[in-house]
Amino acid sequence: MIKALILDLDNTIYPVSSIGNELFEPLLQLLEESKPQIADEKIKQIKAEIMRRAWQKVADDFDLSAELKQTGTELLRELTYDKPMQTFADYKEVKLIDLAKFLVTMGFTNMQQSKVEQLNITNDFTEIHINDPELTKDTKKEVFQDIMLKYTFKPQEILVIGDDPESEIKAALDLGIPTVLYDRNSSYAQQKADHRISNFKELPKVIEQYA
């Protein structure tokens, strides 16, 4: 029986695209100023990736210089977002589910906390974990383990829900935790998780399978 849900934040509860260009403007400008050392096509790919993954991981994956990575980190460290934000319309379906809920998100503390506040979702969760790569080497896998230990959950009593097969989904699968890939736009042709949904209305039926 499922006793708790663990959710990702970015592109799971709200669309990063709704604030990304404004939020990341200083970083996007930095990338533009890096031409011609970085090709246009590579910059385009980097811009797309920072809308869905932590800057440090993107910088490493694209072999950006240590100097550029550090400058970008310094720009992002203190960034916050102070304008109203909206969740995905179907997020209201998650709020109706009477289970303990945990939010686990990776990113800079100030930035992620400001998103939570502007989305007004603090009270939706038993706990909120911001996994800041500057402050900890722990991954989401370690955070999931900590939650299980603290609340004595067995892996099969938790459902991890997120949009990234290589982040929260992989971490959960490694621990034997059932997973739900939130794939709104059918971005993944192959099954990357135990379950795949495109709307949170589908989530209760997934939970029922573990009754």
From TrEMBL:
Pfam families: Hydrolase. Its cofactor is Mg(2+). This is HAD-IA family hydrolase. Keywords: Hydrolase, Magnesium, Metal-binding. NCBIfam families: HAD-SF-IA-v1. One of its GO terms (biological process) is small molecule metabolic process. Gene3D superfamilies: 1.10.150.520, HAD superfamily/HAD-like. InterPro entries: HAD-like_hydrolase, HAD-like_sf, HAD-SF_hydro_IA, HAD_sf.
